[in-house]
Each structure stands twice: as C-alpha cells, then as structure tokens.
Design goal:
Blueprint: H1 3-20, H2 26-34, E1 36-41, E2 46-48, E3 56-62, E4 65-70, E5 77-83, E6 88-89, H3 91-95, E7 105-108, E8 112-118, H4 119-128, H5 132-156, H6 159-174, E9 176-178, E10 181-184, H7 190-197, H8 201-213, E11 217-220, E12 223-226, H9 229-236, H10 240-246
Antiparallel strand pairs: 1-8, 2-7, 3-6, 3-8, 4-5, 4-7, 9-10, 10-12, 11-12
C-alpha cells in the first residue's frame, strides 16, 4: 500500500468511526483509529466462534454479518440477528467482568470488512476517554429495544409485516438511489433472506410475489427495486419510533 492510499484509508476510517461514536472529539477519534485494525473476510468466513476466547470488539465497515448460536446437537445453527454497516459485535464479553468468551458465533454473509479493537486496548481507551460509554450505551439500548421488538414480532406478527420491515431496513442500509425508488442489490441468497425472517424459502417467495402484485417492489434475479417505502411502512404497521430505530438496525 502506498503512503497516499494508506493516508486515504486512515481518513476514511476516522470518518467512519466518527459516525459510530459521535460523542468523541476529533482528537479522541484519532486515538481510537490508532488502536483499530481493519480486517477483511470473504463470504462464508467465520469471524468469531461460539465458546471461543472473545478477542475484542468488531464493527461492520462494509458487508453483512450474521450472528447465531449452535443448537444442543452441536451442528444445527440458528441465526439470531444480522449486523449491517456501523453495527457491533463482541461488546458483551469484553465489558462483562468475567471470562471473555463469545456467547454467539459471527459469520460473514457476504464479503465484509470490519474494524477491530483488541479487548485490552478498547478497555483502556474507555477508561481514559469515558465519553465513548455514552455511544456504547446508546448502541446497547437500541439493541435491547430491537431484540424485544423482534421477539414479539416473530411470535405474533404476520410474515408480510416482517418482510416489509426487513426490506425497509435493508433499503435504508444498502439501497442505492433509483428513479423509481431504492435499488437493493445485495449478493445474498433467498435462503439467507428466509433465515433472516425465520421462514422457509417458499414462504418468502410467496411474500415477495404478493408485494410485487401490490406494486411495492419489483425483482430481477438478485436485485430488488423498492418502489414504495410508504406502502411498505403501511404494510409493516409500526410506530414512527420503531421506524427510526429500523433505519439504523437490522
């Protein structure tokens, strides 16, 4: 890497970190960037293994990451949630005062880049610069709200409502502006989308077909064109409060 490209990468990483940690000053962001490491993972790579040593905190810089747990049989896996750009993994085992063990696994769904902070470094930084705790608390509070919401939603809500919420979240995170709406071109399979909803692929395809007939979207191979966000929001039937959270969280 040339000096110019390295300088550009450092600048971009600082800008990214500032968006994740808005409570920190520019000087603190510079110090935080100095203890960070950019790590790249190919599609399907295991980022962290359940039950292994929790080495630190990861923040998704690009791509999409699944978080899950193994069933009691060991080989069966259950996806619990997905992390988009700006979302974190590894806070719990790092900041809990006990043996740092990953309680879930993390896996790259698509080619992904993550910003990594080694456990001792981020702990030392948080003690020296406690303002970062405001951003971490904001993140964890948002996570609790969304996990409760998802548990209730998956238990009692229809697939159509859940699909509308998922498409809105993906559109806000990954949608590219299009003259008819937002173009979602993520290299993820319909199987992965079905896992994100906790339904079969057949059920997902029926839902997408219904949304196409309603004029909410159109599909072309892996591309999904979201044509009507207001229509999706009406289909989801959630309050503005949750919609504002969904804009930031998968």
């Amino acid at each position: 890497m040339t000096a110019a490209s390295q300088k550009k990468e450092t600048s971009e990483r600082r800008t990214f970190l500032k968006s994740v940690f808005p409570s920190l000053s520019d000087g603190e962001i510079t110090k935080l960037e100095a203890i960070s490491l950019l790590v790249h993972h190919e599609e399907g790579d295991l980022i962290a293994q359940e039950g292994s040593y929790a080495s630190g905190v990861f923040i998704v810089h690009s791509g999409l990451v699944s978080i899950g747990k193994y069933a009691s049989r060991g080989w069966e896996k259950r996806c619990l949630r997905f992390l988009a750009v700006g979302e974190m993994y590894g806070l719990e085992p790092v900041f809990l005062e006990r043996e740092p063990i990953n309680v879930q696994f993390a896996k790259a769904i698509v080619e992904s880049t993550l910003v990594f902070f080694e456990r001792s470094n981020i702990l030392a930084f948080s003690k020296e610069h406690p303002r970062i705790c405001a951003d971490l608390c904001r993140w964890l509070s948002r996570e609790v709200i969304m996990l409760e919401f998802k548990l209730t939603r998956q238990a009692v809500e229809s697939m159509d409502r859940n699909l509308a919420l998922l498409l809105m979240a993906l559109g806000n995170k990954y949608g590219a502006p299009h003259e008819e709406g937002a173009l979602l071109n993520l290299p993820i399979s319909r199987q992965t989308m079905a896992e994100m909803l906790g339904v079969s692929v057949e059920t997902l395809m029926r839902g997408l077909k219904r949304f196409k007939e309603l004029g909410l979207l159109s599909t072309d191979h892996s591309e999904i064109l979201l044509k009507d966000f207001d229509g999706l929001a009406a289909r989801a039937r959630v309050s503005q409060f949750y919609l504002s959270i969904i804009q930031e969280t998968l």
